[in-house]
Amino acid sequence: MAIVADFGPDAQEYIIKSKQEDAPRPEECPHCGVKGCLIGHGYYWRKPRDQLRVYRLEVKRWQCKACKRTVSVLPNFLLRSRHYLLEVIAAILALRLENLASWAVILARNAPERYPALRTIQRWCSSFWEQASRWLKAVQEWLARQDSRSGWLDAQGEALQSSNPAQALLAASEHLLAWAKTEWTELANYGLDKRVHFLWLWGANGGLSRLV
């Protein structure tokens, strides 16, 4: 099991500053619920990549003294089940689902040696599409409770302009981030290109599991 934490959106900074050493310790074990029982249990390696290079990252791991199970602390620029950094995946999702770019246009914009194969890109978009309705419902319910004045909730607003749940989720994630930036000053450097990073951070720790 993994929780997702905000170490900032930059993988290189995470490596240079060894930010995994600052990984938060959950107050209680997410497996058995016992409080104050988690102790350090080393790290494990992830090797994600972006357009140019492969990184080698350490991910902090805690172990419960009560049930002996472990929980890791995943930086929010990584997904649990994908080899590419989230910034690469998010850029592809925006091109395909918001800009309605064809696969040929996407491949032409991104040099083949810098991006994954077409089938990989298609799997990302298909997976995001499959999860979108569930995540969108959760975002809408959250905004209704926390930010009732959000433009996303306007009956004549952006929601009506989205042609499908996947496109709508990307749009709603911008509003979710806008709300979050009024609550946490550390998100000040999160621009539009990092909205999916916050969406993943928010939803993964809210029990929504897979995003892409």
Protein architecture, described:
With 212 residues, the protein is an alpha+beta fold. It folds into two domains: 2-75, no CATH class; 86-204, no CATH class. The chain has seven helices and four strands; from the N terminus they run βαβββαααααα. The chain has helices at 11-16, 86-98, 103-109, 118-146, 158-161, 165-181, 195-204; strands spanning 2-5, 38-46, 57-64, 70-75. Strands 1-4-3-2 form a four-stranded mixed beta sheet. β3 and β4 (70-75) form a beta hairpin. α2 packs across α4 and α4 crosses α6 (165-181). It starts with a strand and ends in an 8-residue tail after the last helix.
List keywords for this structure.
2 domains; 212 residues; 4 strands; alpha+beta; 13% strand
Main beta sheet strand tally, sense and closure: 4 strands, mixed
- Shape, principal axes of CA atoms: globular
Q: What Rg is obtained from the alpha carbons, in whole angstroms?
A: 18 Å
Which sequence of SSEs, written as H and E, runs from N to C? EHEEEHHHHHH
Measured as a percent range, the helix fraction is: 40-55%
Beta-strand percentage?
A: 5-15%
Structural class given helices, strands, pairing?
A: alpha+beta
Instruction: Kindly state the number of beta strands.
Output: 4
Low-confidence stretches: none
**Largest sheet, order of strands side by side?**
1-4-3-2
Number of domains: 2
Overall average residue pLDDT: 89
Termini separation comes to: 17 Å
* Count of helical stretches: 7
